[in-house]
Design brief:
The chain has about 375 residues and is an alpha+beta fold. It has five domains: about 100 residues, DnaJ domain (Helix Hairpins, Orthogonal Bundle); about 80 residues, HSP40/DNAj peptide-binding domain (Sandwich); about 40 residues, no CATH class; about 70 residues, Urease metallochaperone UreE, N-terminal domain (HSP40/DNAj peptide-binding domain); about 30 residues, no CATH class. About 25% of the residues lie in helices and about 25% in strands. A four-stranded mixed sheet has the order 10-11-15-14. It has a three-stranded mixed sheet with strand order 1-9-8. A two-stranded antiparallel ribbon has the order 2-7. Helix 2 runs antiparallel to helix 3 and helix 2 crosses helix 5. The chain starts with a helix and ends with a helix.
Length: about 375
């Protein structure tokens, strides 16, 4: 027998309100539209089944007497998703609110959020910028002011549900008469019907419109970050309050610099002679041109760090650094004179027969000392 009280996390003596509150909390966490995890979906089915049992006085009585109303011969049937007191309307309550009494839902609904992508240069994400964006969202209908009705008319009470937003039916079973409730199909649970809709929005209370917004890109923003503009999203049905607009920043690839957090990296290529003799290199940074002094004897893959030449910290003060990587270029095509000069240099530096250089005290150094001592 299933532990229906344990599934909902309530005591056996819990009141109807406590059972309903526990179910709504779990439904908000486990509903497939919110939690796509397959295990959560199975848990949601168990929670819904437990609520359908415990919200039905006759089925709950069978449970309290030690039976299972959903088992064969246990005093009840499994029932459908919309059967009993705990049907679709309670799930709607769990997600859209609602107190102890069910009734028609408001025609005015909260609008959804909107998302737009903006491509920014590295200089814009580094120093900040203002962008003019053209967006198209739902806005309140100016003809009916969000009411959805034609001029001089009002919504009328639904004749099917008589304004309740739901219809009830009494069905007979071997347990007796069971009352079921479902959302009114004619008014979609609103209790009223727009007989004469607005010609502009066709009863929705909102229309699509294109408009221009000024968006401030903060200094230091990273690729993929979103900027929230409160109340600039989609207006809800019935002219309801708008959602938010999120501007997602996409940073364009820079031809020179690559970004890692708030640090920037770039690579400059030096001839072998310049690395050996030392030189000064003009370097273009985001702040302007600067001079990089390369000391004599600079080795390949050397990295020079220019402090505070990177991207400003988005949360805090200061900036990242600019790391300059040196790529020493060895010539591949030499004429006879150049070859002769390099040979003379190699002779002067005793580098005509290069060999393996071992660190003193290392394995090769010990082997060398052993052979030298023979």
């Amino acid at each position: 027998m299933a532990d229906y009280y344990g599934i909902l996390g309530v005591a056996q003596g819990a009141t109807d309100d406590e059972i309903k509150k526990a179910y709504r909390k779990l439904a908000r966490e486990l509903h497939p539209d919110v939690n796509p995890d397959p295990s959560a979906q199975e848990r949601f089915k168990e929670v819904t089944k437990a609520y359908e049992v415990l919200s039905d006085p006759q089925k709950r009585q069978i449970v309290d007497l030690g039976g299972d109303p959903l088992s064969p011969g246990g005093g009840g049937g499994a029932g459908g998703f919309n059967q009993g007191f705990g049907g679709l309307s309670d799930i709607m309550d769990a997600f859209f609110g609602g107190g102890g009494q069910r009734g028609p839902r408001s025609r005015v609904q909260q609008g959804s959020d909107a998302l737009i992508r903006v491509d920014c240069e590295l200089s814009e994400t580094t120093f900040g910028a203002q962008r003019e964006l053209t967006i198209e969202t739902a806005v309140r209908c100016g003809t009916c002011d969000g009411q959805g009705t034609a001029s001089g008319t009002l919504p009328t009470t639904c004749e099917t549900c008589r304004g309740r937003g739901e219809i009830q039916q009494v069905q007979k079973s071997f347990l007796g008469q069971v009352m079921t409730s479902r959302i009114c199909p004619r008014c979609a649970g609103m209790g009223t019907v727009i007989e004469h809709p607005c010609g502009e929005c066709h009863g929705d209370g909102r229309v699509r419109s294109r408009r221009t917004l000024t968006v401030k890109i903060p200094a230091g923003v990273e690729d993929g970050m979103r900027i929230r503009l409160a109340g600039e999203g989609e207006v809800g049905p019935g002219g309801g309050p708008p959602g938010d607009l999120y501007v997602e920043v996409h940073e364009k690839r820079h031809p020179i610099f690559t970004r890692n957090g708030d640090d920037l990296h770039c690579t400059i290529t030096l001839p072998m002679t310049a690395a050996a003799l030392g030189t000064s290199v003009p370097l273009e940074t985001l702040d302007g041109e600067e001079t990089l002094d390369v000391p004599p004897g600079t080795q390949p893959d050397e990295v020079f760090t220019l402090r505070a030449r990177g991207v400003p910290h988005l949360r805090g003060t200061g900036r990242g650094n600019l790391h300059v990587h040196l790529d020493v270029q060895v010539p591949t095509k030499l004429d006879d004179d150049q070859i002769e000069l390099l040979r003379k240099l190699a002779a002067l530096r005793d580098e005509e027969r290069p060999g393996l250089v071992a660190k003193t005290g290392g394995l090769f150094g010990k082997l060398r000392d052993a052979f030298d001592g023979r």
